[in-house]
Structure formats: C-alpha cells, structure tokens
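Q: My collaborator sent me two sequences in one message, no labels, and asked for predicted structures for both. Can we handle them in order? The first one she listed is below.
A: Yes, handling them in the order given. First sequence, followed by its structure tokens:
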Amino acid sequence: MQRVLLFGSHGQVGWELQRQLPESVELLALSRAQADISNQEQISGIAASFHPDLIINAAAYTAVDLAESESEKAYAINRDGAAHCAVAAAEQGARLIHLSTDFVFDGHRPTPYPTDSLRRPLGVYGASKAAGEVEVERILGSKVLILRTAWVYSAHGKNFVKTMLRLMKEKESLGVVGDQLGSPTWAAGLAAAIWRAGEEPGFHGIQHWTDAGVASWYDFAVAIQEEALALGLLSRAIPLQMIASSSYPTPARRPACAVLDKSASYAALGAAPHWRQALRQMLTDNDSE
C-alpha cells in the first residue's frame, strides 16, 4: 500500500482525489481546519505520525482579487505553506506533488507556455504561487512534481461553471469576458492525472496539466449554456454578450492568454479530453456534494 498524505481535502481537486482513491493507496486527507499548512510544526508533526510515501499539496489561497489586499495571508499559504509541505516530505523521504497555476505567467505569449518559461506573475496570487514553486524546488530538487493547471471546475465548491448555471437561471442576459484565453479543466480529470503521476516516480520537475483545447470565458459560458440546455439543467436560453476585460474591472489583473504546453505530461500520463467533452461529462454526472 502506498501511503499518501493529502492537504486541501475540501477543495475541488482534493474532493475529486478522494472520490477516485485507488485501492492500492492508504490516504490521510486533511482539510484546512484539520491541517494549517502555514504552520511548519503542525505539518511536520502530521507527516511524522503518518510516514507518507507521497504528499499531495492541493491546499492554496485562491481568492485572486482578495489576495491584492491580503498579500500576507496569500504568501503564508501559497509560499510558506508550500515550503512546509516540502520540508515535511524531505524529513520523511517522501515525494511531493505540489499544485500550481497558469497565473505564474503574464499571459503575453501568443503560443502555449513551455514548462521552463520565465515566471512573470501579474498579481499577488500569481506571485505567491510562483514563490511557492521556487521554495519547493529549492528544498526538494528532483523529488518534487510541480503540476501547473488552470480554470479548474467541478460539481464541488465554487467555480465558473456553477456560477454560470446559477446566473443563467436568475438573469435575463449576461456579459462574459471574451479577451482572456485559457483551458477549462475538470477537476476529475486532473485528479486522475495526479493519481497516475503518483505511480510514476520518474515524472517530476515542473509539468503542466489541463484539458485539451482553448477557450475564452465567453466561449466557456456559451458551451455551458448549450450543454446544460441539452441535458435539461436549464429551461431557457438567455442572451450572452462578449465583453472586454476593461468592461469588468477587478482588483487583480488576469493573464490574457496563459495556455499551457502539456505535451510532456500527455506523453507520460495519457492525453486529456477536449475541455468541451469533459464539461459535458461533468454536467451529465451532475454529482452534488
């Protein structure tokens, strides 16, 4: 049995990791209330008691806009917490899979970002996640897998898909940003990839994983409405207008085009489905928490 310690059990990815638990894994899954990754002593103590072979850090401060006014909290979790997980892994001789984000980039590249691209975050959230990457690399070297992802959604927690479904029931029309591009990623597929990566000790360093394809938030919203109507999750269609980011100002700047190059991870773990296929499957399953 592989002993796996999971931080961030109540998040979207943590929830899916537990749903897909392999029979060969003994899992200790802890929520933020049960394990504060910003507390080094607590994290090292938990790891020392459990003796994991693998630690998965799916815990993060993800409030992108709020991070602009809560930078100390964002760094405590995303940088220091990541470092604490790495120290615990080093103390136990365990591997670490650390989840990161496309927000470590500025989104100015017209083609997908290779894994070795220079980090250029635009805001506090991205900067704190970039700092976390640097820390785990410094502490663990080749014993860490940093897995960057993007635009994650699931039937659990707060995310764009669930927000759009709610607003499409409540509103007569919606404006959705059309000049930010990325790759929507179903947390279930990401979780499956993480479990496969956990079985591949040679799969390490910085890697990228999202579902295949590219969309704007507007494209994503259009697909959500179309798929939800086809499945009977919505009873009517509403007009969707494509708007510019400048029409929807937020405290934090977002990367305009932070598409990730997944060629290495797809070769190692198997390719992900197109994002629209994954969206359809998620809405078909329509599991509740």
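Q: And the one she listed second?
A: Here it is, processed independently of the first:
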Amino acid sequence: MTASSRATGFDSHGRIKAGTVATATFDTSLADYRDTLGLTVLETGVVPDDLAQAWAAPAAAGARMALLAPVSGNGCFLRLVEAPPVPGYRPARSFGWAAFEITVADVFALHERLAGSGFTVIGPPKKVSGFNNFIPMQVVGRGGEILYLNQVLEDMADLDLPLAGSPVDVIFIAVLAASDHAQTLAFQRDKLGLEQGGTFSIPYGVINNAFGLPADHRSTLTMTKVGRLPVAEIDQYPEDAVARPRPPGGLAPGNAIISLGVDRLDRVAAPLLAPAAARPGPLYAGRRSACVAGPDGEIYELIEMGEVGDA
C-alpha cells in the first residue's frame, strides 16, 4: 500500500463510509434524498457485474445506481440501487440492517420540511429521558429504509458523536436487527475487529410499534466501536421477527449494505464473498474492497483504508 492511500482524517478503521438503500422507486427516492434531505448527487450509472458479484447479489448487475453525499463533503456517502419490489417486506420487522443513523443540524426544522415528502415520520423529534446527548427522529423512506435523523448535542461518556457539518450529514451508527444479539456481537468483535461498547435495556419505540408490543417493553442493545468512534448498534429483535425477504440473487430491500472502513482486509477473519478488488469512484478512491456476510445474512462491504506504517 502506498503512502498516499494511508488512512487520514475521516477515513479510518471502523468508519462508516456509506449506507446502501435498495429501492423499487428509484427516481422518486433519488429526488427525496436530493431535494428533501439536500444531499448532492455525485455519480449515476449502473451496478457493474463484478460489484454485484462482490455483494453476492448477481441479479443487481445492471441496476440503476446513484451515489450521494452531504454538502459538507466529509467522506461519507449514501448509495441508492434500483431493485424489484419484495412482497412481504415490512420495515423494522426482519433481521439485518434496520436503520442508518444520520446526524442533522436542526431536527425540528427538518421535521417541518419532511411534511408532504416521500419520508414518513414514525418517530417525531423529542428529547428522550435519560439521553441528553441527542434529539432523535425516525423516518421511513419510499424503499422501506429507516433513517434515524438525530441532532447531536454532546458526546456520550465513551463515544464521540459528530456534530452536523451540513443540514443532513454523516451516517455515524448502523443499526442492526439481530436474531441472536450475542452471536452478532461476537461476529463484529472477533471477525471484524470492532470493540464492545455499552449495553442498554430500553423501551424501544421503533421495535415496540412495529411488533405491537407495550410501550414499556424493553429491548437489549449493545454498541460496537473503535476507540471512541461508534460503529454499530446491535438490537435484539423479538421472536416474531423474520429473515429479511429478498429477490432471488438480489439485495435485501430497504437498508441493504453498510460500507465500513478497515485497516487491512487480510486481518478480517470472516470469509470474503468474492476476492478483494480495487475500485474507482469517490466511495472507493482506488482502494480494495470486499464483502462479508454476518450471522443474519447482513452484508458488510469492507473498504481497505491502510494504517500508519503501511508502505
């Protein structure tokens, strides 16, 4: 690895580089992210065959794709991929990537702007008792993806939370619905080299509403991190949750993929779904990437960032 490709600034081990949404309403979803959330469209095109193979989703080859970024240009992206509708898919009811948590500048102003848009608010902005670090809001997009749009107020005791550099900014936590919370935690820790953070038991409105549970029903979640950098929130989902339905050979609908920086791919203990390859474009910047599948079939796209001392 050359010195010019070493991890610097935003790009580092554990950093969420992108979230990919698979949507059957590509044109209107793209307009929602561009015009309502204010993201900038950087690239449009189709999914190359080798990239679809890397995702273990060969049917996605040739699908329309768009790469967007916050106007702050900080190095985080959101990618839309056109996909067929999936009968039986319901947001927040199945295992896999459940939501992308994004920092925003003014959650109350954003809530007003979402009125009449393609995003459905499932949790209006409000302060949560016991959590003084951010003001959350939850929405569902046209593709069945869930976004947590959170205005960060201050850091947590063991985690640094990013202040927004633009009205809608970086994905800073990936929320994962797990069938076996402990197994998924062990996978992220032992196979991907992430660290275990805090574990909480909370009344989780998104889960309780989706499954018709009492408002005071508590769910267990554990954070994973790298140092003080948050990475994922692993939620133990109820017994009524199901495997994510998906089209044959295609991507999971809604929140489909998380792209994660890793220092070196040869340190990843999970088997790669396809050989690593260097890829062009703003997301990859010529770096090597490869994918692995987690315990519930969730796809992690790992992008090699390098580390100080590599040559």
